[in-house]
Design goal:
This protein is α+β, with helices and mostly antiparallel strands. It is built from five helices and 14 strands. The radius of gyration is 21 Å and the shape is globular.
Length: 294
């Protein structure tokens, strides 16, 4: 988490504990938003302090407030994404360290359980305490912070290919849902399909570059459960600046495995120039904002 301060424009702070403490003190003294949730006993409260340092980027400081004052438990750099990434059901688990949470979402478009860091822990605590989360149709907005990536040229596609890909994802999602419910035919079809894809890739990779075959992917990366290696097509992008350090950042909206979400990366860490239609390949720390129904 400490290293990802660089992704929102705090390169020096990411390299110095002293700079981090100054930054966190600035959030504590000059926060722009405060959210608090009392414990069931009423003797203490979970407090979330937020300060933004640019468009949709900032730092949250979270901790416990009791009769002796505020006790910081953890902090997190964040980048808020746009739109709704998935409407699939999710579960939330408390992490071992403090009142931080991870969400788990099974989205058939990816084929794996997506684990993400929850961006709005105070709101989740409030909903959970009042037992309004269970059975609700909450949606999730994903976003990612990246410490390294590159821009790849796009693949040449025909309009028919785009339509076929959309139809493919629709059918695959339907089969994955059926397989989860125990449909044996769907399980067999998915197994045969994966075997056919593996055979095709094994044959073509002998004569072609792998990135001319694979258009997009989303897979776990490293030791942390919420970090992934991704490649996706850039829908649009903006160049923004950290208001505190003036470092340049790129915020990109990408489509990856049929999912659309936003990522933020320091300009220094991006190899190449982003353009609409080109592809981004890199590693991300996956975050998610749970959108609770009113």
């Amino acid at each position: 988490m400490h290293a990802f301060l660089r992704a929102i424009g705090f390169t020096e702070a990411a390299q110095s504990e002293y700079e981090v403490e100054l930054l966190l003190d600035d959030v504590y003294q000059n926060y722009q938003r405060r959210a608090a949730v009392k414990s069931e006993s009423g003797k203490k409260a979970f407090v979330e302090l937020t300060k933004t340092y640019g468009p949709e980027i900032g730092i949250k400081v979270c901790g416990e407030l009791d009769q002796y004052g505020f006790h910081r438990q953890y902090y997190m750099p964040f980048f808020y994404g746009s739109g709704v990434t998935t409407s699939e059901e999710l579960s939330v688990e408390r992490r071992a360290s403090g009142d931080s949470f991870v969400g788990v979402c099974d989205d058939g478009r990816v084929g794996i359980s997506l684990i993400f860091y929850v961006q709005n822990p105070a709101e989740y605590c409030r909903k959970d305490i009042f037992h309004t989360l269970k059975g609700s149709r909450a949606t999730t907005t994903f976003s990612g912070l990246s410490l390294g990536g590159m821009i790849l040229l796009p693949l040449e596609k025909k309009d028919e290919c785009e339509e076929e890909q959309t139809e493919y994802f629709r059918k695959r999602n339907s089969m994955v849902s059926a397989a989860k419910n125990g449909n044996q035919e769907a399980i067999e079809n998915l197994t045969l399909e994966d075997m056919d894809i593996y055979t095709m890739l094994s044959r073509r990779v002998l004569h072609e570059d792998v990135f001319s075959i694979v258009d997009t992917f989303f897979m776990p990366y490293g030791m942390e459960c919420d970090q992934y290696q991704i490649m996706g097509t850039i829908n649009f992008y903006t160049r923004v600046y950290n208001e505190h350090t003036k470092e340049a950042l790129y915020q990109m909206n990408i489509e990856c495995n049929g999912m659309i979400f936003d990522i933020c990366i320091n300009r220094r860490d991006l190899l190449g120039d982003p353009e609409i239609g080109r592809r981004f390949k890199g590693s991300i720390w996956l975050q998610g904002r749970i959108n609770f129904p009113d």
